[in-house]
Amino acid sequence: MAASAARPSAVARFFDSDLWYSFSRSPVAVLSAIVALLCIGGAVLAPWVAPQDPFDLATLNLSDAFKPPAWAEEGDAAFPLGSDDQGRDVFSAIMHGARVSLLVGVCAVLFSTLVGVSVGLLAGYLGGTADAVLMRIADIQLTFPSILVALLVDGVVRAALPRETHDQIALFVVIFAIGISNWPQFARTVRGSTLVERNKEYVLAARVIGLSRLRIMLTHVLPNVLGPVLVIATLNLGFAILAEATLSFLGVGVPPTQPSLGTLIRIGNDFLMSGEWWITIFPGVALVAMVLSVNLLGDWLRDALNPRLR
């Protein structure tokens, strides 16, 4: 009882681990984590902390349109980053737009991870014809740029469904389009790791005692191939956010009633040359900060989990 009581908690073990030591000694990783937490926190808490609900038409006033940032000569403290053509607070719109961008990015990465890990496990463990067929499908998809695959999926859904129906499920269509375009990276990585793991002694022992293939894959092989998957998922989160912003900028992403950062940039781009630069610049800066911080964290995680660099 005394020994179990003295055992350190999971939190204590984490702060005593090599991963935390590497993180605390990397100024870039710490700064990236702070920026990422600010972006995520602002997006998640937007309905409660944003100065204005930019999508509530009852609170908008066209007389407040095109107000410059608060520090400018004609600025208004009620609009710290200025207002757009509808009188919406740009700062509040960024917080709500980041909320949509993060939702699409996280869900798309989770979807592509689920599909890619499942395909990679099956291909690597079963081998033979299943491996050849699944990997050739992945190779064929890798020949097409991911953004073109996403555009193709979105175009097919738009052509197959009425406009009203598409608008209702547009968010799910974008998540599916981005997610289905990124699964081959996960599949190839998991397949390579599974080919190594399936011939190790613990897998052979599991076969000897009569465990099923599905149980061996899920309870024995899968936990040992998740390290690289975590790194790829972190790096792909930034790409998924950029892909969603690109689709929304092109007008084929989320509907105008749920604008993301890409939609805000597209709206502001129409007024950039007329002098209202803040409408597009600030959403662009927010997008760059979010994606850059996530990518830098992914780079650090890749190095921290690589034993050859320790």
TrEMBL record:
The chain crosses the membrane at residues 28-50, 102-126, 138-157, 169-190, 221-243, 277-301. It comes from the Bacteria. InterPro entries: BP-dependent_transpt_permease, MetI-like, MetI-like_sf, OppC_N. This is ABC transporter permease. It is a multi-pass membrane protein. It holds the Pfam family BPD_transp_1. It comes from Craurococcus roseus. It is found in: Cell membrane. Residues 98-298 form the ABC transmembrane type-1 domain. Belongs to the binding-protein-dependent transport system permease family. Keywords: Cell membrane, Membrane, Transmembrane, Transmembrane helix, Transport. The keyword Cell membrane applies.
